[in-house]
């Protein structure tokens, strides 16, 4: 849907702009001349001739919507785009009902239709929360946290993430050591899933400290993971130009462990802020439809860790 909407915005902007331009170049002067002649023959004056040259409906509409549509296109395509969080895979960082702003220029300026990078502005860093086109279905937007950078080796064992960072100018086979990502227990029971209180930890990824959730009983067997040729089922070597991503709700997230890596060209941008957050939980006997929010969580508005 995102690509179709971008295409619609581009079409509407170009069409309304062309209508306005062609009218200004070829038709506006003729209308004014005709109105002048008509006004002079009737009233002997040309003072109100320009007012008498009424704009055709399609030209008037184009002039009214072009500035608005062009502004929305530039804002959405190159600066910031709003997204809604539809699932709990990024809990506790992002909750269902959060509406976020994604910085579109964080990882390159791309054209709004074919999404080809025109200007390089940066690359993801370890710990960034990114929105990207799901590699298996590019029409779907996913949001996860970057864990592995190009050249890294990532291992996921017993709910613990291990990383061997890549080193520039050296073989990744012999560079660095496989080390566990630092985690520290924080709390238990704030979130419940499948009748079980989830365990909350603080995880340190590079310079980013953020919280994750672990299910005390659920664990996915490595046989269900994406298997990269030449590695074990719970180990991945991140190819150049690609990234390894995980959800913060580790036992309730379909991420790189299951389908592989995110190519650079699939990146949409970095999630930088929550601009509004709605609560959708309701009592079992509530008569309200599920899509109607029950409240606003103003405390969640702000930056994303």
Automatic annotation (TrEMBL):
Enzyme class per UniProt: hydrolase
Protein topology in the membrane: Multi-pass membrane protein
Superkingdom of the organism of origin: Bacteria
Domain annotation Peptidase S26: ranges: 60-275
Record field: transmembrane: 6-28
One Pfam assignment: Peptidase_S26
Entry's EC annotation: 3.4.21.89
Main subcellular location of this protein, as a coarse class: membrane
Keywords from the UniProt entry: Cell membrane, Hydrolase, Membrane, Protease, Transmembrane, Transmembrane helix
SUPFAM superfamilies xref list: LexA/Signal peptidase
Subcellular location, record wording: Cell membrane; Membrane
Keyword Membrane set for record: yes
Membership in a protein family: Belongs to the peptidase S26 family.
PANTHER family: CHLOROPLAST PROCESSING PEPTIDASE, SIGNAL PEPTIDASE I
Protein name per UniProt: Signal peptidase I
Upper taxonomic lineage: Bacteria, Pseudomonadati, Pseudomonadota, Gammaproteobacteria, Alteromonadales
Gene that produces this protein: lepB
